[in-house]
Amino acid sequence: MTRSARALWFTSSGKSEIRDVALAEPGPDDVVVRTLYSGISRGTESLVLRGGVPESQHDVMRAPFQEGDFPWPVKYGYLNVGVVEGGPLLGRTVFCLYPHQTRYVVPADAVTPVPDSVPAARAVLAGTVETAVNALWDAKPMIGDRIAVVGGGMVGCSVAAVLARFPGVRLQLVDADPGRASVAAALGVGFASPEEASGNCDLVVHASASEEGLARSLALLAPEGQVVELSWYGDRRVSVPLGEFFHSGRLRLRSSQVGVVARPDRTYAERMALALDLLADPVFDALITGESRFDDLPSVLAGGALPPLCHRVDYGS
């Protein structure tokens, strides 16, 4: 069995390279995984690539199998689908929160089997759909709620896709880019520009990572309404409009972050398994809007033209 691999490392602002790496000798409870696909989480990985992780968040923002320290050099990523070549689960397709690397060795309990109903190429979305699941556990939407998702990026669209299954809600995806309308249509949800979005919302999930988006999210709320903030601003300061109707309307603003399971009665493994089960729906294919080969990844990242949603990396056979 091959004892070496190739991995993507972020080396300086806007630059990355593929390096040869040696694989550890697997133990009896480890699996050896050959990567089929990985996914680029545009918001977070772009932040890491430019060195924008605040020093105060270096420990919090570490990926499970990250190597190196922020800002650089660092091996970073967490959307990986591969097939087990050695150890338990031999032959199974699995998802792992692992960086962009051709092969790797991890404990068997660090991977989640991909259901037979979910294609490996779609399973790269599992980490993002897991974030959506956690956000909705935080948000606790109710039947009949008037809901807006502000920010039609990878996370926002994942939230909208999950909410589209929820009965009796008024749901709209809100984004300044009219091109997101086609994605919303594919997901089966309404679309509106920020100016045209329907107000009087019971719940707004904000995922645009912009000051303007957060302000608009608060403006869309009905009295007693709630904004769940999913955006990661990194080292940027943002202004929050807490005047006008914020107090009189008894509005609520709370954060949601996937690093903590929002339900104390569920485990990380259960949350990930649920995300993968949801991906049996082919509607999620609309969230994959670009693809490249692993060998081309440094030039793709350097070009700065990543697609707005998920960029899938193909490792070939």
UniProtKB/TrEMBL annotation:
This is Threonine dehydrogenase-like Zn-dependent dehydrogenase. Belongs to the zinc-containing alcohol dehydrogenase family. Its cofactor is Zn(2+). InterPro entries: GroES-like_sf, NAD(P)-bd_dom_sf. The keyword Lipid metabolism does not apply. Keywords: Metal-binding, Oxidoreductase, Zinc. Coiled coil: none annotated. GO terms for molecular function: metal ion binding; oxidoreductase activity. SUPFAM superfamilies: GroES-like, NAD(P)-binding Rossmann-fold domains. The keyword rRNA-binding does not apply.
